[in-house]
Design a protein that fits this description.
The complex is a heterodimer of chains A (about 775) and B (about 160).
Chain A (H helix, E strand, L loop, with lengths): L19 H5 L15 E7 L5 E7 L1 H5 L3 E5 L24 E2 L5 E7 L2 H9 L2 E6 L6 H5 L41 E9 L2 H6 L3 E9 L11 E6 L5 E4 L5 H12 L6 E4 L17 H10 L3 E4 L2 H7 L5 E10 L5 E11 L8 H8 L8 E9 L14 H19 L3 H8 L18 H10 L1 H4 L12 E11 L6 E7 L5 E5 L7 H13 L6 E5 L16 H28 L6 E3 L3 E4 L2 E7 H7 L11 E6 L7 E11 L6 E11 L6 H20 L31 E5 L21 H13 L10 H8 L5
Chain B lengths: L2 E7 L2 E7 L5 H8 L18 E4 L2 E4 L12 E3 L12 H9 L8 H14 L5 H7 L11 H24 L1
Helix pairs in contact in B: 2-5
The chains are: A alpha+beta (about 775), B alpha+beta (about 160).
Chain lengths: ~775, ~160
């Protein structure tokens, strides 16, 4: 019988992904693998200007090219389409203005890609260039040129729920003289900050910057659309949330959501960059005009220059501490560059979360989000988490150095506890932060003496650690459990499986039903065929959908037991379940196999209805996921080059449903954090032109850059997830950057506050004053 | 003007009329419907499109199909034999060496080529051999473990064959 923590029979087993075989044989169908009869291929014309007014577009030569079947511009967008100038989704084709380099201005569908590309060259656009808002500094100027053009309705934005009005948390009204490009402002204040700093023995203050980075999924965005005669369109698009993607297409084109069927094929990586998709309205509109199916596959250059990367931030941070290590006051000035459309929440989240892992007696957290003429920023694995954690964890490391304290002990001393006030003024819940720090402190990587700074190899060696957390999402979710032919159990759900969640969900269903994982059949259904599922984002799939699957399975089990009890003329309590079926516990020979039960519920003149049940779970409690990292580096003092020698991640997952897949998440997240720390940046020139939109120049970690990443899974109580599970996917990216930065600081004695920590920056930190 | 070429793909001879601008990747995916080979960047930097040409790993996005005329090409679809997975495929599954699966075809083919040249690669040799294949999900740790396991199993299988003689 399943218990609250699971029996250990299925929950906690390291089972390879159920879809592995399809993937290693090349049979899995990803976005660009969808092929339809008479399908056309699409390309789009990108704006070469970061900011310009469109004076005219002449598509006549493109339309005349043989093989071209449709050309669209904003003039083809239906009048009933919603238009909010603050929404990236509504700007899938530039209307009156282009607001970032790479924004689609027109699109073509043709018989083949070469023809579509040739047609794009024939489109003539006349632009009137406008002053470019290229940087946060530009955007803050009261006289800066407005980036948003047209009506702003305050509902939809670049992210899930953009609010474009300037808001403050404490009803204080706008705090700063607003530039037209400051789109969101938050202020959180508590206690007497000035007194807190006056009381401090040590104060550290620095400004930390994180550049624009790309989520780096290897599969570029792709979408395929086909209309039928009923004014209904089917879209195949790899996305994290099919309901959200359906809403995007419907809203952008003025359709009712039920006019759009949205199938997500396999998703070739997403990490927040494919929440709702971005480009699908282009092939949908082209397919309508051409009267044939259309596929658009975005190129890597378009991905890196004009998709939806993660935001650039500048965080000025000041923290104080007493000589005994007690933290006093903290003050933060947060600036987030949203790109051309508001993110809606990333700045707010950074500002409200920055100090929440530690106790302070007073704080003043002020954040502003600005829009600039760059591609709109969106989520990337714990959106904003790496940005603010790099700031606070670098600063805590420096406090430890200044105070002469052990960095783990300093963190343990000031760690936030259950019931403490968060910046949001909600009390902190039950968390595993202490257990994570304890496990890190016990790890051989931390127990060993710190490496000698100057090694025999002539390199500078250092070790650093950092703590991080992520609150995650916790959406409502529903799933269906069905007793299937042959005694199998089908779980129908709308969740998109990216990280192997269907394997974990099958384990949850098997546990709840008291059967084996092999008896579970997982069915991914589009919004046409499944109850609502939240997007696979915010680490919520196992935590939220897991509860719905568990409830559906338990409800089905209860119905099966009631059915059998009725059939055998006993009370339900007298019925037992095993892997083969149900039986009277006291008389095991009186049994129905699951196959028999299926038949009894489906044959003509059946006495009972078919056996099925729905699980429908509301939003869960928050169960923040804590992770900590230890990094060891070797730095070449001549060149500033950093080698990452060791990286360990410790993470509290509540209850490990599938340790194999959790380790995989930890490895992936930690490696992305190394990329952000050391190599990755989309650079822009003063006209907001991207300088490195290729995978040669946008430098993601390769196998040769990384050591074997080590993991420690901690299981601490908290939250109300299935069998005690907490969120998994996002926390492991959070602490790695600062752990690496702190290791480099230990090795070099100099701190690099601007990411990525390039050899040049390391060299400059080593040779202060030299150029 | 289409040109006629002949490829041996996964052991099967294919005569094709192809436009000279088409890459081997496009011909494999669009003409032969072998969509297991993926496009990630079309500039030769991500390795997702890696196939074996005469046993050597090649970025199929950088090779024109006409340049491959007369060559033997192995794609992911050619790894399993009569429904039995290649040891590299089996090891990737067992060790969790794949997540989203998009880089997996290219990663496995690069592994097959590595193990053909070096039956017992060190961790560093594995990392260098796979450095041209980007993976964003796994952080490479479990891929390295999968390659090590495949190497061991292929060694064992080779020894068994020898003993069988």
């Amino acid at each position: 019988m399943a218990t609250e923590q699971g029996s250990g029979r299925v929950i906690g087993q390291a089972i390879p992904r159920l879809d592995s075989r399809n993937k290693v044989t090349g049979r899995a169908i990803f976005g660009a693998d969808v092929k339809l009869p008479h399908m056309l291929h699409a390309r789009f014309l990108s704006s070469p200007h970061a900011h310009a007014e469109i004076l005219s577009i002449d598509t006549s030569r493109a339309e005349a090219l043989p093989g071209v079947r449709a050309v669209i511009t904003a003039a083809d967008i239906p009048a009933e389409a919603r238009y909010n100038a603050a929404s990236r989704f509504h700007a899938f084709l530039a209307r009156t203005h282009t607001v970032f380099v790479g924004q689609p201005v027109a699109a073509v569908a043709a018989d083949d890609l070469a023809t579509a590309e040739a047609a794009i060259e024939l489109i003539e656009v006349t632009y009137r260039p406008l002053p470019v808002v290229a940087t946060i500094r530009d955007a803050l100027q009261p006289e800066s040129t407005p980036v948003l053009h047209g009506p702003v309705d305050g509902e939809a934005g670049g992210g899930a729920a953009a609010h474009t009005a300037v808001v403050t948390s404490d009803d204080a009204g706008p705090i700063t003289a607003a530039s037209p490009n400051v789109v969101d402002e938050n202020l959180y204040e508590y206690g007497d900050v000035a007194a807190g700093f006056a009381w401090s023995d040590v104060i550290v203050e620095h400004t930390y910057t994180v550049p624009v980075v790309h989520q780096g999924y290897i599969e570029p965005h792709a979408a395929t659309a086909r209309w039928d005669d009923e004014g209904h369109v089917t879209v195949w698009e790899p996305v994290q949330g099919t309901w959200a993607a359906r809403e995007l297409v419907a809203g952008a084109l003025g359709l009712h959501p039920t006019q759009v069927t949205l199938h997500s094929p396999e998703v070739g990586g997403a990490f927040g960059g494919k929440c709702e998709g971005v480009f699908a309205p282009l092939p949908v509109l082209l397919a309508k005009k051409a009267g044939r199916p259309v596929q658009l596959v975005v190129t890597r250059q378009e991905e890196l220059s004009g998709a939806n990367p993660a935001p650039h931030s500048i965080i000025r941070l000041k923290t104080g501490a007493r000589a005994d290590g007690t933290f006093t006051a903290i003050e933060a000035e947060v600036l987030v560059d949203a790109g051309a459309f508001p993110t809606g929440w990333i700045m707010s989240n950074i500002t409200a979360s920055l100090r929440d892992n530690y106790r302070f007696s007073a704080w003043r957290m002020h954040g502003r989000e600005v829009v600039t003429n760059k591609p709109s920023a969106t989520s990337y694995r714990a959106p904003g988490g790496p940005n603010f954690t790099y700031a606070i964890e670098s600063q805590v490391d420096e406090l430890a150095r200044r105070l002469g304290m052990d960095p783990v002990a300093l963190r343990q001393r000031n760690l936030i506890r259950e019931g403490d006030l968060l910046t949001s003024r909600e009390p902190q819940g039950v968390i595993g932060a202490q257990q994570v720090l304890d496990a890190l402190a016990r790890h051989p990587a931390w127990q060993a003496p710190a490496p000698a700074r100057l090694g025999a190899d002539g390199l500078l060696h250092g070790r650093g650690m950092a703590l991080g957390s992520w609150a995650g999402s916790n959406g409502p979710a529903a799933a269906i459990a069905i007793l299937e032919a042959g005694g199998r159990f089908r779980i129908v759900l709308g969740t998109v499986d990216i990280t192997g969640t269907y394997t974990g969900l099958a384990q949850i269903a098997a546990e709840a039903l008291d059967v084996s994982v092999e008896q579970i059949v997982m069915t991914h259904a589009s919004p046409d065929h499944a109850p609502y599922a939240p997007m696979s984002a915010g680490s919520q799939t196992i935590y939220a959908m897991g509860v719905a699957v568990k409830e559906a399975a338990e409800a089905l089990r209860a119905r099966i037991v009631a059915y059998a009890a009725g059939d055998f003329g006993v009370e339900p309590e007298a019925i037992a379940v095993d892997a083969e079926g149900v039986f009277v516990a006291a008389e095991p020979e009186r049994r129905h196999s699951f196959g028999t039960l299926y038949r009894l519920g489906t044959e003509w003149f059946a006495e009972y209805g078919p056996l099925a049940a729905v699980g429908s779970a509301p939003q869960r409690q928050r169960a923040p996921g804590f992770a900590a990292a230890v990094a060891e580096v070797a730095v070449d003092p001549e060149t500033g080059k950093v080698q990452l020698k060791r990286l360990v991640t410790v993470q509290d997952v509540g209850k490990a449903i599938n340790p194999l897949l959790i380790e995989g998440q930890m490895h992936g997240g930690a490696t992305q954090s190394a990329g952000m720390a050391l190599w990755e940046e989309i650079a822009y020139d003063e006209n907001a032109q991207p300088l490195n939109p290729s995978l040669l120049d946008y430098r993601m970690p390769t196998a040769a850059d990384m050591p074997q990443h080590e993991t420690v899974i901690v299981e601490a109580p908290g939250g109300d997830g299935p069998y005690g599970a907490k969120l998994v996917g996002e926390p492991p990216i959070v602490p790695g950057l600062a752990a690496i930065g702190n290791a480099i600081a230990a090795a070099t004695g100099g701190r690099v506050c601007d990411l990525p920590i390039t050899p040049e920056r390391v060299w400059r930190a080593l040779n202060k004053g030299e150029t | 003007m289409a040109q006629t070429i002949e490829l041996t793909v996964n052991g099967k001879k294919e005569a094709l009329a192809v436009e000279p601008h088409l890459t081997l990747l496009e011909v494999l995916r669009d003409s032969l419907n072998l969509t297991g080979t993926k496009e990630g960047c079309s500039t030769g930097h991500c390795g997702a499109c890696t196939v074996l040409v005469n046993g050597e790993p090649v970025s199929s996005c950088l090779l024109l199909a006409v340049e491959a005329d007369g060559q033997a090409v192995t794609t992911v679809e050619g790894l399993a034999c009569n429904g039995n997975l290649h040891p590299v495929q089996a090891a990737f599954i067992e060790k969790g060496g794949l997540q989203c699966g998009y880089c997996t075809s290219g990663m496995m083919l690069a592994t097959v080529a590595l193990l053909a040249h070096n039956a017992q690669p060190s961790e560093q040799e594995i990392r260098l051999a796979l450095a041209g294949n980007l993976c964003r999900c796994t952080g490479y740790t479990k891929i390295v473990e999968a390659v090590q396991q495949a190497a061991e199993e292929m060694q064992l299988a080779a020894q068994e064959v020898q003993h069988g003689d």
